[in-house]
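Section: Multi-chain targets

For targets with more than one molecule, the full set of components is provided together so that the structure can be written out for the assembly as a whole rather than chain by chain. Components appear in the order listed by the source. The example entry contains two components.
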Amino acid sequence: MIHKKVNNVQEALKGVKSAMTFMLGGFGLCGIPENAIAELVKLDVRDVTCISNNAGIDDFGLGLLLQKKQIKKMISSYVGENEEFERQMLSGELEVELTPQGTLAEKCRAAQAGFPAFYTPAGYGTEVAEGKETREFEGKMYVLEPAYKADFAFVKAWKGDAAGNLVFKGTARNFNPNMCGAATITVAEVEELVPVGDLDPNNIHIPGVFVQRIFQGKNYEKRIEQRTVIQKSESC
Amino acid sequence: MLDKNGIAKRIAQEVEDGFYVNLGIGIPTLVANYVRDDIEVEFQSENGVLGMGPFPFDGQEDSDIINAGKQTITTLPGASFFDSSMSFAMIRGKHVHLTILGAMEVAENGDIANWKIPGKMVKGMGGAMDLVASAENIIVAMMHTNKRGESKILKQCSLPLTGVGCVTKVVTNLAVLEVKNNAFHLLERAPGVSVEEIKKATEGTLIVKGEIPEMNI
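Its structure, encoded as tokens over all components, is:
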């Protein structure tokens, strides 16, 4: 077995510098690498590019990096729910690249899987395709999208072991598996770091080969953005 | 004239047995409430779940189980979770049969605009561009006109496009329209709405053939 375990978030983020490009897993606030984000705030790295489906909310997730003006460029598919983001975007302080969600996921997966680029129908005929190579296959038009390049990928899993194997829970899975192995160094934080051998090899979502560093995360808040519930008295 | 729930109710009639369906945010989300319960349908949410159920009971919400609108949800027996790349493989690969989404504008050639208004804060397209570029069956749920009474059913979209030539059907507060051969074909009228009213509210080419039935909802 090849050991990937590091003792804490500080060790896990060793080598992180200003002006780097990071991938961060999560959809909204679901499945975000909370510990890595908190440490990036402490490290005060600047001018970073973040590839993440969303940009957090004002006081949580990537919103924390935005508050300290650490982000130079955001690559996302949807960036609502964040006033500071809006202010920085409209004032021109923050560069924003909006990418269709499926294309964003696949640009990560392509990097993970060794594809330099791929053709997708998403965005053809729209401003997303402007300046990009297009090609017809069997009568339909496609846009060529290159794989992302990143220095670090920060992902969050439910369970993991010292070999770097990961298991995700519910929809907290989202972009996390696609970002594993898609950057030079993949850092996985887990809610539960279990002894090697405890995870059933049949049920591992991401094999440890895609992960360079893994650590036991702490103090997860796992905030809910839209708490929608039905009262027990309601019939449906 | 229909309200939002009426539009959702009419669209629910388009959902067939054995369909996997992706519902957008807004009116489309309401469609799930009106699908007949004698057919088997699974709802997909592009953040990575198939087999979505209703909202959880108070106290049973789980921050790890949400839909694409970031709302807490439940799953039904037979549900599955998957990553974002696989989710869009389902969509791009045409394994999801029906996409229902909202729009700001639709054009007679099937173009749709629903993600950006120049000069206003842009929130992003999310999964809409992937959905409209791939699905073969795209139904748009929308109001026929804007707040100023101007038609949103157009010859050509004026807003930045989300997708080209992709919309197959539009259900509005006034009518059911099929989009083909560069025109809107009037299929049904909303209760109490005349063909004349629909003509007046439609800027794009409208084809009216024979008696137009009233919606049965």
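The radius of gyration of chain B is 17 Å.
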